[in-house]
């Protein structure tokens, strides 16, 4: 049984289709990341899986339950970190955790959970005085109170400084290592690269690309760029392992770019060509494809208002 | 997709969860001065006013006792109705309501905890007022406390449902001061709290009897004096059983308002801000 199952899910708000028929599965102990631009439908998908809203059409199952109709049975097994939720401003961190322990079956100890998220010094601070990153950590603490089997994290590290972000990644990795299933949305591609076993990129309510980071990036090709030397006509540029140069103009100068499969052989060909013609290649860059390339490519492919 | 609306008010509840929510509510209430004033200050103010009515007569009764028994009903509007409208509106807008729904609590437990606190505050206020009426204002002790309590509990349910509905129509916590006014004013002026409805012409009196607080005023006054104080009642002394029978119509009006309250709460209540 898949821990999370989404099949042909659609959600509408009035005339606006927020989610346009998506399907994916997440296995036990797996971390699945949903990436996408703002308004891509990530949060709507997550809130459907969390049981806040009924599926417009299609099927969603979490641990075999319909999350909306069987919320009562399912919720004690879930940890939910919403993208945005309020704290009672007059309560301290300790009071907030204590209060939530009363709502949670067999909860972790307060000190344990605050230690996990790195807030042990802030117990007597009122929640209104916490920084954005500290609030996010308290959010995470509440989501972890009930030792959830499935954890939903909606942009968990937004507002955190790099140190706190890395600390959070460490916590999430340990939870996954212990068998927790995690569904995460994020704006930070590095976060997905660091954490995700598999991911999907959503755009305008649909999943455009899905797979492991390696799968997703592989289709994209590696990239070699350099400034076209002044005395070389564009038509004289070589092909590299069959790839033809595309020319862009940056700061008034022509830049040649190649999308290639495998950097080493292509670079060797390029350097041999340059050596042969006694050329200096200014601004030579060679890099493997990144998730960012795929992401930007996906977001650019169907611009706002495009007819599909 | 009306997910942000009220799904079902009647769901299985765990008592420990309801009490945990109630404890949270009480903690927050004690730390919020303006809410605390409306819960403690307003009843004190109204209670104090009663001493100015002593010796005057209205509707064949001492005016302090007449108005005092009216307040036994009217305190419900402060403690339950206005309190719940402002609490649920503020929590919806600052997204704490959404947080309360993000864990193991069911929706009815979230409602139930707040209902227990506001209902308990009302009953304590009413009990204290009964003591003041019976001692400082020279009134009798309640003839039929069971009838009074049943009416009060029914009133708590009706006004909580109305509060959930009105909170859905209230854009923010500041506006809650305004959106409660129609119900508060209708209850104050038209339900016989301070002035007997007997002076009204027949049709207007029947209409006033249909207002949501009117049944409670009738039931509480009838139960307190052991006399028939329902709309058009004779004010003659009646026994335990007859008091219940005379109050069947007020309870029927409450039943009607329960239906209206359920319908409107289902239609208008919102868990999340409109702009989200």
UniProtKB/TrEMBL annotation, chain A:
SMART domains: AAA (SM00382). InterPro entries: AAA+_ATPase, ABC_transporter-like_ATP-bd, ABC_transporter-like_CS, ABC_transporter_ATP-binding, P-loop_NTPase. It is found in: Cell membrane. GO terms for cellular component: plasma membrane. Residues 4-229 form the ABC transporter domain. Its main location: membrane. Coiled coil: none annotated. One of its GO terms (molecular function) is ATP binding. GO terms for biological process: response to antibiotic. It holds the Pfam family ABC_tran. The keyword ATP-binding applies. It is a peripheral membrane protein. It comes from the Bacteria. Keywords: Antibiotic resistance, ATP-binding, Nucleotide-binding, Transport. This is ABC transporter ATP-binding protein.
UniProtKB/TrEMBL annotation, chain B:
This is ABC transporter permease. Pfam families: ABC2_membrane. Coiled coil: none annotated. It is a multi-pass membrane protein. InterPro entries: ABC2_TM, ABC_2_transport, Nod_factor_ABC_transporter. GO terms for cellular component: ATP-binding cassette (ABC) transporter complex. Residues 30-225 form the ABC-2 type transporter transmembrane domain. One of its GO terms (molecular function) is ABC-type transporter activity. The chain crosses the membrane at residues 35-53, 65-89, 110-134, 146-166, 178-197, 243-265. Its main location: membrane. It is found in: Membrane. GO terms for biological process: response to antibiotic. Keywords: Antibiotic resistance, Membrane, Transmembrane, Transmembrane helix. It comes from Actinomadura rudentiformis.
């Amino acid at each position: 049984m898949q821990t999370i199952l989404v099949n042909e899910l659609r959600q509408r708000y009035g005339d606006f289709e927020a989610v346009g028929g998506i399907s994916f599965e997440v296995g036990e102990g797996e971390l699945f990341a949903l990436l996408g631009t703002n308004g891509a439908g990530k949060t709507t998908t997550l809130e459907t899986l969390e049981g806040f809203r009924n599926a417009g059409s299609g099927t969603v199952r979490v641990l075999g339950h319909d999350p909306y109709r069987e919320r009562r049975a399912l919720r004690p097994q879930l940890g939910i970190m919403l993208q945005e939720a309020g704290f009672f401003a007059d309560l301290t961190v300790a009071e907030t955790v204590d209060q939530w322990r009363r709502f949670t079956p067999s909860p972790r100890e307060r000190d344990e959970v605050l230690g996990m998220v790195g807030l042990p010094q802030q117990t007597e601070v009122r929640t209104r005085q916490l920084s954005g990153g500290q609030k996010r950590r308290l959010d995470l603490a509440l989501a972890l109170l009930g030792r959830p089997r499935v954890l939903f994290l909606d942009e968990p590290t937004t507002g955190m400084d790099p140190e706190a972000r890395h600390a959070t990644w460490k916590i999430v990795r340990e939870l996954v290592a212990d068998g927790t299933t995690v569904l995460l949305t994020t704006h930070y591609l590095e976060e997905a690269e660091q954490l995700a076993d598999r991911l999907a990129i959503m755009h305008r309510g649909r999943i455009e690309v899905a797979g492991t980071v390696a799968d997703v990036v592989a289709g994209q090709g590696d990239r070699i760029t350099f400034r076209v030397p002044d005395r070389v006509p564009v038509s004289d540029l070589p092909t590299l392992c069959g790839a033809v140069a595309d020319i862009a103009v940056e700061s008034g100068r022509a830049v040649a770019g190649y999308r290639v499969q495998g950097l080493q052989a292509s670079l060797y060909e390029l350097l041999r060509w340059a050596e042969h013609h006694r050329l200096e290649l200014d601004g030579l860059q060679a890099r493997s494809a990144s998730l960012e390339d795929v992401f930007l490519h996906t977001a650019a492919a169907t611009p706002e208002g495009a007819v599909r | 997709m009306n997910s942000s609306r009220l799904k079902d008010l009647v769901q299985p509840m765990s008592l420990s969860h309801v009490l945990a929510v109630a404890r949270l509510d009480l903690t927050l209430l004690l730390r919020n001065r303006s809410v605390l004033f409306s819960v403690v200050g307003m009843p004190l103010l109204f209670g104090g006013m009663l001493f100015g009515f002593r010796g005057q007569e209205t509707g064949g009764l001492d005016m302090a006792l007449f108005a005092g028994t009216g307040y036994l009903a009217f305190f419900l509007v402060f403690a339950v109705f206005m309190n719940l409208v402002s609490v649920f509106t503020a929590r919806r807008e600052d997204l704490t309501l959404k947080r309360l729904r993000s864990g193991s609590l069911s929706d009815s437990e979230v409602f139930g905890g707040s209902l227990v606190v506001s209902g308990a505050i009302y009953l304590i206020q009413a009990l204290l007022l009964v003591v003041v009426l019976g001692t400082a204002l020279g009134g009798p002790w309640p003839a039929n406390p069971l009838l009074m309590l049943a009416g009060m509990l029914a009133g708590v349910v009706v006004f909580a449902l109305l509060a959930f509905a009105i909170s859905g129509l209230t854009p923010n916590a500041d506006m809650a001061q305004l959106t409660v006014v129609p119900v508060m004013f209708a209850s104050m002026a038209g339900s016989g709290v301070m002035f007997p409805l007997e002076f009204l012409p027949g049709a207007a009196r029947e209409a006033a009897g249909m207002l949501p607080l009117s049944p409670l005023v009738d039931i509480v006054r009838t139960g307190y004096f052991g006399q028939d104080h329902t709309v058009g009642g004779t004010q003659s002394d009646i026994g335990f059983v007859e008091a219940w029978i005379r109050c069947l119509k007020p309870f029927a009006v409450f039943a009607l308002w329960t239906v209206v309250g359920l319908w409107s709460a289902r239609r208008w209540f919102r868990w999340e801000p409109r702009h989200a």
